[in-house]
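Input chain follows. Return structure tokens only.
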Amino acid sequence: MCFRFQKMPTRKAKHAGSWYSDSEIELSNQLGLWLQKAKYVHGPARALITPHAGYRYCGSCSAWAYRQVMPEMVRRIFILGPSHHFGLSGCALTTATYYKTPLYDLLVDSKVNSELQSTGQFELLDLNVDEKEHSIEMQLPYVAKVMECYKDQFTIVPILVGTLSAEKHLNYGKIFVNYLKDPENLFIISSDFCHWGSQFRYTYCDRSCTNIYESIHNLDLMGMNAIENLNPTEFSDYLKQYGNTICGRHVIGILLNMVQILIQETDQRPKLKFLKYTQSNQCVSMSDSSVSYAAAALTID
């Protein structure tokens, strides 16, 4: 008798070799060095905010978020990333069973995927669309590195987030808060901060600042302060006032609503703190451009 085994769908690491190294040894050493240079100052983390650009731009910044993870406590990792290329008015789940990285493959949590799908609030993501998007993939090598001593003891839940209304931020917050309550779950919120320059169609500048890059920093700092206050309305009002091009604003909106519901339903005390901030370039003229990166960790006492 001949048995035919169906191959499990695997998402390829499409950005390896360009946005980050496709060499297992080189990548592992690079991530390890960045993690070694970062300090454990606000952990154990239950959620992270971390950038998703090429590692030569933001790799060292991301390390400050991932350094706050205690891997022995984590058994499931939710990775929420914004959709850059695919029109989406809600959230979408992967159809892949594994996500490849140059270090090792990560197993998708089929049980949680089924639970989320049963709510009727999630689309299923075509594998080709999944592979084109970078916001989730850029978190995977760091996940694999931080969890390498427990590689067979955890799963991931990748979720692509579209353009959401305030009502949907709240609805998804209600869905995810039960998972946030479990200390074995870690949430990774994938987001860059200000995309500044004519190519991004955003050139806000506070003329009281000597240099443009200082204006950008102050602008981002206002947003980071609103996020640290864990107030979704304050963050939403900030975005309306300044229009800052934070690509993961909807992902952050879900996190802030999750945390607010957690505060209302429990006596737990969450605290979010930004630990590192960098810019890809220090803009001094209107012809310059830059993207900002910030790393944060959320603890729950």
